[in-house]
Amino acid sequence: MVWKNRQCLDTDQFRDSSKLRRGALLHKKYDTNSWFGFVAGLTGFAPGMSVLDIGCGAGWFWEKCAERFPAALDITLAGRSTGMVEEALARLNGVRRWRHIAGVVTNVCAMPFADRSFDRVLAMHMLCHAEAFGLPAGLAIDFVLESAPPLLEAGFGAVELKRNTSEMVVTDPADVFSYPALFPPGDDASEAELQVLGRLADDAFAAGGACCASPSTAACSSAANRVPAQSQ
Q1: Cα 148 to Cα 168: distance, rounded to the nearest angstrom
Q2: How far apart are CA 173 and CA 154, in angstroms?
Q3: What is the dihedral of CA 141, 144, 150, 155, to 10 degrees?
Q4: Whose CA is closest to 50, among 120, 154, 105?
Q5: Of 38, 49, 215, 230, which one has the fewest beta carbons inside 10 Å?
Q6: Which tens digit of pLDDT belongs to each residue from 165-190?
Q7: pLDDT tens-digit profile of 78-116?
């Protein structure tokens, strides 16, 4: 999903976590394999490391996986939205685990850090939005599992693709209906269009025997050689 309207991202979708939270409920309720747990197992955080989380969201990842990470971490939370970064800072400070937590409101394509400023960099579920901010044309659209390694290797060196396979068996058509209504073009749909969407959800459940099964495969690309924090 790609938004080319930067103002839409800043003032609506990611102004705060309200829409993100509603969208995440589908995965929280039905996903059989935690994405946060999968990523936490790949981070390799060690005491004393500095970590940059680009597109930090509301800080749910850190809150959920806090006990899996060392207390002696320096964490920098970065995001486009002031409201989201402030919420993430409040959430992590509330955990009372890490020695240093900072927040930076910034554009992912103009990060205010020198290369090699951090030991680890996280960038979860945000590259699909980056085209709006000046990354090479087509990157966000073409960033699928098969094309991820060659696209990332230009900036990160060796890239390894990890897969997290899950399945969502959704039992309530209302949950299916509410998800696309959160994002463009669904969030601007008329009442008549929303009614059509609702009927489509009901029909899908009727055809599937009162449930909707969806296999979900996620991927994590880890840079083995170098981690440049400054976008080129």
Answers
A1: 24
A2: 42
A3: 60
A4: 120
A5: 215
A6: 777 778 888 887 777 777 777 777 88
A7: 988 888 899 999 999 999 999 899 999 988 877 899 888
- Burial pattern 190-201, b for ≥16 Cβ within 10 A else e, equals eeeeeeebbeeb
Task: Provide the token pair at 85.
Answer: 């970064």
CA angle 83/9/197 to nearest 5° reads 115
Do residues 57 and 84 make contact, with C-beta atoms less than 8 angstroms apart?
Answer: yes
Contacts of 108 (CB under 8 A, 6+ apart): 54, 55, 78, 80, 123, 126, 130, 133, 231
Q: Which residues of the chain have pLDDT under 70?
A: 1-17, 127-149, 151, 155-156, 209-232
Q: Which sign, positive or negative, has the C-alpha torsion 81, 83, 84, 89?
A: positive
How high is the mean pLDDT of the chain?
A: 76
**Per DSSP, which regions of 106-148 are E strands?**
120-123
